[in-house]
Amino acid sequence: MSTFMANKGNIERNWYVIDAAGKPLGKTAAAAATLLRGKHKPEYTPHADCGDFVVIINADKAVLTGKKGEQKFYRTHSGYVGGLKETKYRILMQEKPELAMRVAVRGMLPRNIITKDSLSRLKIYRGDAHKHEAQKPQAWTVE
């Protein structure tokens, strides 16, 4: 019996939709990262990109637990002296919840070449409407 190794030719990609309303940001991001990598499949191969498409809806209704809204910061740096910009996550979740969700999912993916392709299959929407009904996504529940 030989060991199965996934490659681009024999990967079947499914579509999943995750509803983030009332769910913690981190748990939703962890579920999305698992689906994007394909770790839920029996034919998972670590060095191959065998993940699925993920649509996250209601990103604006995701919650932050504890004091993360006031104590956690989203930081960017321009590269120049004094170019550090900080935004509290409470403000970021109000103004750009899609960015907060994308940053959380990106942090849970490995730092390698597959990550860029995995993130291109992630679709995040602020409300409950999305434009991927034609792909017939399956609902994925977050515990």
In what range is the share of β-strand residues? Answer: 15-25%
| Order of secondary-structure elements | EHEHEEHHHEE
End-to-end span in angstroms? 36 Å
Sheet with most strands: 4 strands, parallel
Overall strand count: 6
What gyration radius follows from the Cα positions, in whole Å? 17 Å
Brief sketch in words of this structure:
This protein is α/β, with parallel strands linked by helices.
Provide key terms for this protein.
143 residues, alpha/beta
Describe this structure in words.
This protein has 143 residues and is α/β, with parallel strands linked by helices. The protein contains five helices and six strands. It has helices at residues 25-37, 68-71, 89-95, 97-107, 114-120; strands spanning 15-19, 53-57, 73-77, 84-88, 122-124, 138-140. A four-stranded parallel beta sheet has the order 5-2-1-6. Strands 3-4 form a two-stranded antiparallel sheet. Strand 3 (73-77) and strand 4 form a beta hairpin. Helix 1 crosses helix 4 and helix 3 packs across helix 4. It is globular, with a radius of gyration of 17 Å.
